[in-house]
């Protein structure tokens, strides 16, 4: 989805380093210091306008959340929400999700969310999919042993690809939903895309997968 340019977005971001960073390399391994309390860290790669990450932070004060987004015109919407809410357990990061090992230390993250990622349907763009094996390797590096990956999409092709990708990578599938909104799953918090697609009657797919215990050197 193409987003409109928001006048002054870059300036607003630079004026609020207490909530958002454009380069977090200095905070690698130190993320807990940016939160009010030391708690499990959950990250969302590709947070869009932030409805999911903001509502998750409000609903789960015992967890620290980091929303990661590459587009300035998207993350500014999350920052605007945070400036209103001032949630002590929410931080934002304006960076490329492919470079997460530059900003997070090994085993620093407890859970990774991927919500309605770009499907990149053409085969030549496979490496850009956020469940491609190089991305999974990145998540595994920054995640704690046996950390989980939670993934939601409306795109059946991407979901089938992701099921295969996490399995081939060696992850353990914990749970799978082929029609989330008509299941017994409780506590679902929707993204903006999820609301849009579900209103059209499209099924929402979801999976939870677990990284294996890391080898001890």
UniProtKB/TrEMBL annotation:
Class of this enzyme: transferase
Q: Which reaction does it catalyse?
A: guanosine(46) in tRNA + S-adenosyl-L-methionine = N(7)-methylguanosine(46) in tRNA + S-adenosyl-L-homocysteine
Supply the InterPro entries for this chain. SAM-dependent_MTases_sf, tRNA_(Gua-N-7)_MeTrfase_Trmb, tRNA_methyltr_TrmB_bact
Q: Could you say which EC number(s) this protein's record lists?
A: 2.1.1.33
- Pfam families, sorted: Methyltransf_4
What is a GO molecular function of this protein? tRNA (guanine(46)-N7)-methyltransferase activity
What residue spans carry the region label Interaction with RNA? 124-129
- Which pathway does it take part in? tRNA modification; N(7)-methylguanine-tRNA biosynthesis
- Write the record's keywords in alphabetical order, separated by commas: Methyltransferase, S-adenosyl-L-methionine, Transferase, tRNA processing
UniProt binding sites for substrate: 122, 154, 191-194
UniProt binding sites for S-adenosyl-L-methionine: 44, 69, 96, 118
* One GO cellular component term noted in the UniProt record for this chain: tRNA methyltransferase complex
Which HAMAP family does the annotation name? tRNA_methyltr_TrmB (MF_01057)
Role description:
Catalyzes the formation of N(7)-methylguanine at position 46 (m7G46) in tRNA.
Q: Which family does it belong to?
A: Belongs to the class I-like SAM-binding methyltransferase superfamily. TrmB family.
For this entry, the protein name equals tRNA (guanine-N(7)-)-methyltransferase
- Protein's organism: Vagococcus carniphilus
| Gene that this polypeptide is encoded by | trmB
């Amino acid at each position: 989805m193409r987003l409109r340019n928001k006048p002054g977005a870059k300036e607003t971001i630079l004026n609020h380093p207490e909530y958002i960073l454009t380069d977090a390399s200095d905070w690698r391994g130190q993320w807990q210091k940016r939160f009010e309390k030391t708690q499990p860290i959950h990250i969302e790669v590709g947070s869009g306008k932030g409805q999911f990450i903001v509502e998750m932070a409000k609903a789960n004060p015992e967890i620290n959340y980091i929303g990661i987004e590459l587009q300035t015109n998207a993350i500014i919407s999350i920052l605007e929400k945070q400036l209103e809410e001032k949630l002590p357990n929410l931080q934002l990061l304006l960076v490329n999700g492919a470079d997460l090992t530059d900003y997070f230390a090994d085993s620093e993250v407890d859970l990774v969310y991927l919500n309605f990622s770009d499907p990149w349907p053409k085969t030549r763009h496979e490496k850009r999919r956020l469940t491609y094996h190089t991305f999974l390797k990145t998540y595994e590096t920054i995640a704690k042993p046996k950390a989980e990956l939670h993934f939601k999409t409306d795109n059946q092709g991407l979901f089938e690809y992701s099921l295969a990708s996490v399995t081939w990578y060696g992850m353990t599938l914990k749970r799978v939903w082929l029609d989330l909104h008509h299941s017994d799953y409780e506590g679902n918090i929707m993204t903006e895309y999820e609301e849009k697609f579900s209103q059209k009657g499209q099924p929402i797919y979801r999976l939870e997968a677990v990284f294996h215990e890391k080898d001890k050197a």
